[in-house]
Amino acid sequence: MTPTHTRLERGRSALGPALELVHTGRAPTRAVLTSELGVTRATAGAVATELEALRLIKVDQRPHAAAGHQGRPSHRLSVNPDGPVALAAQVHADGFRAALVGLGGRIVATAPDCMDVPADPQAVLAAVVEAGAQLLRETGRRCVGAGLAVPSAVAEPGGEALNPLHLAWPAGAEVRRIWGECLTEAGIGGYGGFTGNDINLAALAEHRHGAGQGAKDLLCVATGHRGVGGALVLDGRLHTGSAGLALEVGHLTVCPDEGAPCHCGSRGCLDVETDPLAFLTAAGREPGPEVSLLQQARDLVRSSMDDEAVRTAVEVLIDRLGLGLAGLVNILNPDRIILGGLHRDLVEADPERLHGVVARRSLWGRSGAVPIVPSTLDHGSLVGAAELAWQPILDDPLRLVG
């Protein structure tokens, strides 16, 4: 006799897809979950109940009906605000930060920023892990894993930071191995330590929780605290190339003759022509030591557009950025472009100028119609680092059992 399977057993394969739908906000109700999964209402109910038992989501069985609504409203689904968290960390040219991030990209707790990055990766990552461990002790949360964002291409499969240009770290530093060892020494459990390039992870976060939701071919370009990075999300997955090194857009040449020397050996790259230091220099401002270069540049754009020198610097950087974006559009044909860091402030300051430059430089002008929008996540790299740590749970929520 063929064994009879329970509804829950039939629905177990749907646990991961269901959790991802709630995690990304695409299934706010059980009715939507049923439709998206292509299962019966009973199976969707069993799946939601199991995810709630794992303390991953909340099911509101008595939601209020909207005015004029006919019939009983569907159960509302949301991530559990008191559920497990991932430890997320970001290292950048001006310091490092640690945070706890729950499902839905919610930052639950953050440690104070550190403004010192020693030349020894071991010392930096040990300090980051200790800051994260302190957050876990204070909150009493269960940790599912840990993700780290670094301002460098991260080679696969070994996890070496090949070009930490704006850090004093040695090229090829084994950050994934060091990160894992620091986590083990601190006794932080979960399902492993993950590492990735900061802009790649910001793009992943924007695609799942921010301005990139719904995009099929998403291009993200952003200034970090120093330099410029890019990332591409295709059909919901990061495109990192054969060895994790794709989309080094910072080294597109936009000022070949009179451009500044770049760390890569060339001249006039986006990396040195459109980053915060380039903007402050173009605006005639001397960088100060009190806050990061990124914050100084963003504050200047937001508060001083009536200053002619600042306005001219904005126009210069937009023209350089637009030239680089047009080249990327011609090659990649994305359906949306997200700009982060200082670039977000530039596009908000003068969106028509940027769209105009891209349109004039794009093939037939048609590709210039691609939407160019500012990022919406203030800490995208942190949220993206957490996404790496959450992925094993999104693939199989039953990992949490026991």
From TrEMBL:
According to the record, the segments passing through the membrane are none
Which InterPro entries does this entry report, sorted A to Z? ATPase_NBD, ROK
Q: Which Gene3D superfamilies match?
A: 3.30.420.40
Report any Pfam family annotated for this entry: ROK
* Top-rank lineage group of the source organism: Bacteria
Give the record's family classification.
Belongs to the ROK (NagC/XylR) family.
Q: What is this protein called?
A: ROK family protein
